[in-house]
Structure prediction request, 233 residues.
Amino acid sequence: MSGLLGRKLGMTHKFNEDGRFVPVTVIEAGPCFVIQKKANSIQVGFGKIADRRLARPQSGVFKKISVEPQAFIKEIKVDKPQEYNIGQAIKVDIFKEGDFVDVTGVSIGKGFQGGVKRWHWSGGPKSHGSMSHRRVGSIGASSDPSRVFKNTHMPGHMGNSRITVQNLRVVSVDSENNMLSVKGSVAGHKNSYVIIRKAKKRGDINALKAEAAAREAEKKQSKPKGKKNIKKK
Prediction:
């Protein structure tokens, strides 16, 4: 299994073996239930929801597979979907300490914002008499090109967008309480739903350390021995 659904609970800190301060995000990860199997993926659900809040077709699907209604449903790619059973519970123990994960969430919405806050503009003159402290100002020349270029930074809607934070290291896994702690921050407000996947760009930190140690050993073995300097009489 390469991923799991969960809920962001908030941030705290831990101390590692060296006594260093590590900021972590705590995620309630799983259990997720398999709802449907497809060619290269499985559909899983997370979080309980009242049956009265679902449409009849959705409610019928959960009754047919004998699974409690799930609030958050997503598809996750897997190598062999046939190895999973409908209604099977997938728990947080698919991850272990030292793994790297990519966490996807929806960032906090901030509504309509000006360019200074949205794009970190420096702003206009701040001296007495200026009337354009935080205003837009000129956005293009008049005669040439006689238009405004696309993707020009302007005031507008800020936040509430899908963001994936990559290569977050798993600090601890609590299988009993379905808690996962990752180093760093995750997009979204407290109690927002997130998707946790195994990192595409990095593997197990222990395996990476073993590979690095093996490379260093090979370099030392292959390094030619230096000639001894013979002093001339």
Helices lie at 56-64, 115-119, 205-222. Residues 3-109+162-222 form a domain with the Elongation Factor Tu (Ef-tu); domain 3 fold (CATH 2.40.30.10). Residues 205-222 form the longest helix (18 residues). DSSP finds three helices and twelve strands in the chain.
